[in-house]
What does this fold into?
Amino acid sequence: MVEAEASGRVRVRRLIGAAVGPLILSGLLALPAAAQQTDDQAGGQPAPDVDPVAAAPGDAARQVFDAAYFAHYNPLSAADMVVRIPGFEISDGDDRRGFGATSGNVLVNGERPSSKATISEQLKRIPATSVLRVEIISGGGSADAGGQSRVANVVLKPSAGRSSPTSYVLALRQLEYSERLGWIVQVSKTLSLTDDIDLSLDLQAPNIRGRTEAFEAVRASGGALTEYRKQYQQLNQIGLQASANLKWRAGEHDRINVNALYYPTDNSTGIGSVVYAPDTTLRRQTFGRADYPTNYRGELGADWEHTFSDALSLKLIGLGTTSVVDLSQQLDTFLGNALSNTQVQTTHTETGERVGRAVLTWRAMESHTLEFGGEGAFNFRETSLGLTNQAPGGAPVPVAFAVADTRVEEIRGEAFLADIWTISDQLAVTSKLTFEASRITQTGDAAKQREFTYPKPQVAVTWKATPGSDIRASVTRDIAQLDFAEFASSFNSIDATTIVGNPDLEPEKAWKAKVEWDQRFGAKGAFTLGLFHDEVQDVRDLVVIGGNDAYGNIGDGTRDGVEFRGTLPLDDIGIPHAELRVSSVLQKTRVTDPLTGETRAFSSGDNSTPAARAGSSTGGPPPLNPGNRDWGYVVSYRQDFPAFKSSVTLSAARNADRVEYKRLEYIDIGRGDRFDINFETTAIPGITVRLGFGNISSPQEIRERIFYTPDRSSGTVLRTERRSNGGGGDGTRSFTIQISGQF
It folds into this structure.
């Protein structure tokens, strides 16, 4: 008990130091920036053509960008507009169950749409011509912001009883390795059914026809080649996504929104692997195909907001989602040219969620806005896994897995109270306390029931140090959610690896402290520098259960880092109509390895804990998604040619290697820098043309697996497998032509 209390005091002291120390440092850094801003103002810098609207008195934490600000970027959708805001990046939030825990950093008309689709995906369905302005809000402003330090609010134009033109996007894409054409078709339209009812429709038909080709060398501990493999996968994904949004102004005090989405896909993958001896003698070959006869997801959500007065309003949200994926895969293995085995794998996965949420907002006084309410949710995931091997002329022999067939259900509820306190035009404090309780029940091959209760406090302070400089500090108690997929076993037929299900997995818990300095200069210049420190309990990683790898918890760890994002117009250095954008993160994670007892980084490979999702726009540079990796960056340079109504964007991106620690092996996965170039023009009246050349250098993904005997703790290498993989989402050179417009 004494040791626990001492440990708690040490953790609190470290947390306070992590929060206060960076705040002092950021304050010192702000001094020269403030002085520079004063000098610039005194020097009488010329005003830009289009400047963001200044915040109104009493609303110092809000910055407004009218639609005209984005005109020269030729935006097609609201996403294209939001990503052009200086120093701002779209965050899609965490992929979690429920509604309150999944918030990103973008609102639409001051609220989150009642949908579990990512906010970047929803923004791509909103034509740019429907946007009136975009507001940037610092320091909270709503419980819908979900603790985000800065939030973009997309304000749509009132329909005034008029339907909008039909927007369309047509794209063709040629992919390396597959040498096939893929396509994307999108059509969007808003219908004004009455003066008070608008119906927005969006139809998308994406198609991906990719291919990966890999060469893998297997070497003994001394480095001698023992065999090599050639592998390929041929991917086909044909989808049709239909979504609708109904907005009804039911009266002076009532607003009703209904969202619906249905997304079926027809997916299949051709698989091949050929193994050779060092002297090129054929050893074995495996060929097959994976089909997904059933693969769809759908959702239906609605919300009703009633305004009792200028100071009091109530919002009710209901949401339901469903998803079904069936896999049927057959692989035939030949020794030489003779069939030796037929392996059949089948899986069935069905998931569903039902959510109800209520939020009461009370503007108790001019300086205080209170929000309180609750959320209840029911979630389930049902999965089955079957695997058989069959010799020629023999009967199929089933392979047994520890947790192959199981169903996991969760009943969860939470209550919250938030206070948005505007102390002055320069200082605001947002505080929130959430109490969560849940019961998880697992049946089937593993049976267990567990209950969890967690308080989740958070507080954020925003200080407007100067008219162009904000400093934000926050401390949050974050409770990760358990992934129901990790309660069941999974099998990788290509690598012949199994991860067994673990019904005893605990959620990660963390105290997170962060300080950000946001500096704006001119109409288009801005940067944000952030320092963060996380104290993580029950780090989720791979553990050993019954001699097999499984998801589990390996103790406590820390995460420290710095992130920077900025937008720099280059007119002042003699490059007119040019803009440079940078997003980067540098971080260090530390935890004690349960096998070796040594301090190491968190796993960041295929089986690592998912990070918050970053969003992007169509045709732009890739988003920054480092996860648990040590670093990552995205740099883009845009050059406008106003006389030709055209622009060119060059971008480069890379993340540090992903690493993973298993019982028998250490895995390192890395890829070189990615370079993209995009050209767009509106020189042809009525349409926007975009040409894209993606992954110019076609970087190979290098995966190295080091196997140890008897396990990784010995340090004795048994063999290594090094694979060079071309293709995939980040390694396929692509050529894209896209035409968009309205009619």
The radius of gyration is 27 Å. Confidence is low (pLDDT under 50) at residues 1-51, 53-60.
